[in-house]
Structure formats: structure tokens, C-alpha cells
């Protein structure tokens, strides 16, 4: 439950009053609105898309206050608001670095990976896409036996390389260094005609309207090929990606069967996805 803000005013050296906002029960110093909004913009520059909850934690204010800040910043044309978060203008085509993505919601990604691994059974044949969450997921597959894993991610393959009970097949393709993955027509062709039980994929954004999306067209093409190779598609997405839209649609909502996310995901988006037939698996971070 989100409490109401506690707001005070005090004169500045110029005699003007400036509002200060502090999350209820928070003993830390109040943060000026201008300072708080500048910090929000800095966070968006570093991370691309940030959830409302994470912004509130980072600027030490309530979600009610940050939501008001986002409205004000959007009115000035400085940000774009989305379900449960925000991006900077032009962020639909921006791809954060892998290192940046790895730092976001690390605990939630670990919990999602644990839950997603429970959807894998010994003897399964699966395909796994690239991403920080799918990399965590791959690390948990080593407990299984007689798995066949096809992937275009070098980091997924590396995570499984020490397990003699798992057969790992890398697609061909052109290396996209920013995500340590193979993309392009060769990667797509190597997946053609393949049929496995489940595909485990991630992305940069997920909405109930457009499904999964990414800023890059080559990445999107391989993600579609991964999904097309599977009887069921499992999307792994932490709360910072839910309600966020990026430039290229990869997998429409009608094409995936499961969503594994965390309990910080916006409830309204999850309800929409559930109403469209997606089975929800919510991890508690």
C-alpha cells in the first residue's frame, strides 16, 4: 500500500519556497523536486527503461510523488511514460549495454530464473535466447540430465559447457557483441525445421498490446525463429520490462504461452495478459 506524501515548504535564499518530498516513515533527508527529477532523467539515461518502483527507491520518495514527477517531465517533453515506468524520448531504438542490463533487477532475475527452471524436465529439448535473465536461467539447468539445448547465446552456451549431461548446440550466425549472441539469416536458417518442447526467450519490453519487443531488427528475427521452433513459448521478463515498448515487435502475445516475471510487475498489465490466455508464473524476489 502506498501512503500519502509528506510535503513541507521552506524559503530558499532568494525568498522563494520550494517543495520537499519524503517517503512516509523515511528518516533520510527530503529531496527537492528539481533534484529528484534530474536524478530520474539520469537513471533513464543509464538504464534505458526504469520501472516506477525502482525510480521511487532510487530517489527515496513515494511512488505517488514519482508518478507526479513523471507527468511533469512528460509535459516538458523530457521523457515518455509507459505502464509502470518511463523511458527517454528515442529510447524505443536504444539498446542498453549488456553490463547495464545485468545490473538492473538482479535479485528479481535470479528468482525468475529459479522459477523458469522448474518448467524444464529431464530429457527435454529446448531453445534458449540471449539475455541476462536467460543466462541466469541457463545456470540453473545444470541440475537436469539428458537435456538438449539449442541457443544463439554464447553466454548461455558457456553457462552449460561444464555439464556433460547436457548437449549444447549453437546456431550459426553473425556475432552481435553487445549481447554476446549470434544473429542474422544464418542463425534463423539454422533454427528452421527444428521442433522442441519449449522456447525460453527474453527481450527489452513487454506490453499486452504488442507482446515482446527489442530495439534491434536482427535480434527480433532470431527471437521469432526461436519461438517458431517450439511447441510452447516461455517469456522471462522482470518488472522493469513489463509495460515497456521498444522499436521492433518480436513475439506477439498470441504466440507465447507462459510469462515468468516477479511480483513487482504492474498488476493491470498482468491481468490483461492473463485475459489473453497467457499463463502467469510470478516469482517472489
Automatic annotation (TrEMBL):
| SUPFAM superfamilies assigned to the protein according to its UniProt record, in alphabetical order | NagB/RpiA/CoA transferase-like, Winged helix' DNA-binding domain
Reading the lineage from the top rank, the first entry is Bacteria
Q: Does the keyword Transcription regulation apply?
A: yes
What does the UniProt keyword field contain?
DNA-binding, Transcription, Transcription regulation
GO MF terms here are:
DNA binding; DNA-binding transcription factor activity
Q: Which InterPro entries match?
A: Carb_Metab_HTH_regulators, DeoR-like_C, DeoR_HTH, NagB/RpiA_transferase-like, Tscrpt_reg_HTH_DeoR_CS, WH-like_DNA-bd_sf, WH_DNA-bd_sf
Positions of the HTH deoR-type domain: 33-88
Polar residues bias: start-end ranges:
1-20
Region Disordered, as annotated, extends over 1-29
Q: Which PROSITE patterns match?
A: HTH_DEOR_1, HTH_DEOR_2
SMART domains given in the database record: DeoRC (SM01134), HTH_DEOR (SM00420)
Name of the molecule in the record: DeoR family transcriptional regulator
- Source organism of this protein record: Spongiactinospora rosea
Amino acid at each position: 500500500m502506498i501512503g500519502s506524501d509528506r510535503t513541507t515548504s521552506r524559503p530558499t535564499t532568494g525568498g522563494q519556497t520550494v517543495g520537499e518530498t519524503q517517503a512516509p516513515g523515511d528518516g533520510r533527508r527530503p529531496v527537492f523536486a528539481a533534484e529528484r527529477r534530474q536524478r530520474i532523467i539520469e537513471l533513464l539515461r543509464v538504464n534505458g527503461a526504469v520501472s516506477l518502483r525502482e525510480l521511487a527507491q532510487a530517489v527515496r520518495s513515494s511512488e505517488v510523488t514519482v508518478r507526479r514527477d513523471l507527468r511533469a517531465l512528460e509535459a516538458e517533453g523530457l521523457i515518455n511514460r509507459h505502464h509502470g515506468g518511463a523511458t527517454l524520448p528515442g529510447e524505443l531504438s536504444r539498446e542498453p549495454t549488456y553490463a547495464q542490463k545485468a545490473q538492473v533487477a538482479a535479485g528479481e532475475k535470479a528468482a525468475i530464473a529459479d522459477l523458469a527452471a522448474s518448467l524444464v524436465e529431464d530429457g527435454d529439448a529446448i531453445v534458449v535466447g540471449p539475455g541476462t535473465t536467460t543466462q541466469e536461467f541457463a545456470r540453473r539447468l545444470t541440475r537436469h540430465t539428458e537435456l538438449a539445448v539449442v541457443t544463439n547465446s554464447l553466454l548461455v552456451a558457456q553457462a552449460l559447457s561444464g555439464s556433460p549431461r547436457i548437449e549444447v548446440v549453437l546456431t550459426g550466425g553473425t556475432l552481435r557483441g553487445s549481447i554476446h549472441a549470434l544473429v542474422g539469416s544464418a542463425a534463423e536458417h539454422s533454427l528452421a525445421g527444428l521442433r522442441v518442447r519449449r522456447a525460453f526467450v527474453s527481450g527489452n519490453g513487454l506490453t499486452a498490446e504488442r507482446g515482446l519487443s527489442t530495439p534491434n531488427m536482427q535480434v527480433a528475427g532470431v527471437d521469432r525463429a526461436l519461438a517458431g521452433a517450439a511447441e510452447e513459448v516461455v517469456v522471462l521478463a522482470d518488472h522493469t520490462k513489463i509495460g515497456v515498448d521498444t522499436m521492433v515487435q518480436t513475439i506477439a502475445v498470441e504466440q507465447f504461452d507462459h510469462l515468468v516475471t516477479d511480483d513487482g510487475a504492474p498488476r493491470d498489465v498482468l491481468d490483461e495478459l492473463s485475459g489473453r490466455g497467457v499463463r502467469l508464473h510470478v516469482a517472489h524476489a
